[in-house]
Specification:
The protein is of the alpha+beta class and about 220 residues long. The protein is about 35% helix and about 25% strand. It folds into two domains: about 130 residues, Jelly Rolls (Sandwich); about 80 residues, Arc Repressor Mutant, subunit A (Orthogonal Bundle). It has a four-stranded antiparallel sheet with strand order 1-8-3-6. The chain has a four-stranded antiparallel sheet with strand order 2-7-4-5. A hairpin with a 5-residue loop joins strand 4 and strand 5. Helix 1 packs across helix 2 and helix 4 crosses helix 5.
Length: about 220
């Protein structure tokens, strides 16, 4: 099965010509994971990067008290384990499937370096992607340290609007069709699912937003 073709469906990697995939199509396979399956653990060897074909993956670590800290929840088309590209030889985080039908393409670091070496524009895009990802993580950690829960949620929604939102031509509302459950959101901003539900309903009563399981609508007058 051809694996690196999926880069062509990710905006970040459209600069890579499709003919370059053929040289690697026999070297890779997709790997299937069920919910709670680990892709890798902390302290595992970092010799691959991973691209999600479908499903969701949780990235995190355990603090000194044994509590799970969630750094990111990733979905279709997203890359993870990217620190291996930068030379890390050991994982400092875990990656776990949180979907019952997660499919992932593992890509050897040597293969990734070859692709980057053969296409400078692609290489630049990869490094830019890594930089933006680190910047987003730093911003989220600052939110956890210095902002109250409601402010963390509002700023997280603004981030979702940037990543998944679009403007509705008829109403001017910002529509966010996102892949996260309320439990996912709670993990990412360091609170509980019931608290997320309470805060979303508070924001709804304040006419800031409307929401259902599939989308969040940030109302025009509050945008």
């Amino acid at each position: 099965m051809q694996s690196l073709w999926f880069f062509d469906d990710v905006n970040l990697f459209k600069v890579l010509c499709p003919h370059k995939f053929k040289a690697y199509k026999n070297e890779h396979d997709f790997c299937a994971y069920k919910k709670k399956d680990y892709i890798y653990f902390e302290a595992d060897s970092a010799n691959k990067v991973y691209l999600i074909e479908k499903g969701k993956v949780k990235i995190g670590y355990y603090n000194e008290d044994g509590n799970e800290i969630i750094k990111a929840i990733l979905t279709k088309g997203e890359l993870f384990g990217e620190k291996a590209i930068l030379g890390d030889d050991m994982r400092d985080e875990f990656a776990q499937s949180i979907d019952n039908s997660t499919s992932i393409c593992p890509i050897g670091v040597d293969t990734m370096h070859d692709l980057m070496r053969n296409n400078q524009t692609f290489s630049f895009k990869v490094y830019k992607f890594i930089g933006l990802k680190f910047k987003k993580l730093e911003r989220r950690l600052q939110l956890l340290l210095f902002k109250d829960t409601k402010t963390r949620l509002v700023e997280f929604l603004e981030e979702l609007c940037t990543d998944y939102g679009y403007d509705c031509d008829k109403t001017g509302d910002h529509i966010i069709k996102h892949p996260y459950t309320q439990k996912d959101m709670a993990s990412l901003i360091g609170t509980s699912r019931p608290t997320i539900n309470i805060l979303l309903n508070e924001l709804k009563e304040e006419n800031y937003l409307e929401f259902n399981r599939k989308e969040i609508r940030i109302l025009k007058k509050s945008a």
